[in-house]
Design a protein that fits this description.
The chain is α+β, with helices and mostly antiparallel strands and 104 residues long. It has 2 helices and 5 strands, in the order H-E-E-E-E-E-H.
């Protein structure tokens, strides 16, 4: 007959509950807020914050359909765009999905 370590499970759950009480809030004030940005190709896309990173609304990844990624400055100024192109795995997945949708 297998034995379960119920005391260990109870200690683990108590520790997790304590850590949850002491942890900082994981959401920021701008989490989920949407904002429009214009990339260097003069295309405007809506971006929002997800897990501390800006995500494009149309592609649902960190790059917009033109292949640009928003980079935030450490000083908290206006973000700049960096051209990523086809380097990102999520962006390549978006391109394949968009191509399949256009063929149908």
């Amino acid at each position: 007959m297998a034995r379960t370590n119920k005391q260990w499970i109870a200690k683990k759950k108590a520790q997790q509950a304590k850590q949850k009480l002491l942890a900082w809030p994981k959401t920021r004030s701008n989490e989920g807020l949407k904002r429009e940005y214009t990339n260097p190709k003069w295309s405007t896309y809506i971006w929002f914050m997800r897990s501390w990173k800006r995500v494009c609304d149309r592609t649902s990844c960190r790059e917009d359909p033109d292949g640009y990624r928003l980079r935030r400055k450490p000083s908290g100024g206006e973000p700049t765009f960096v051209e990523i192109g086809r380097q990102s795995r999520a962006y390549r997945r978006y391109l394949r999905r968009a191509h399949r949708m256009s063929l149908k």
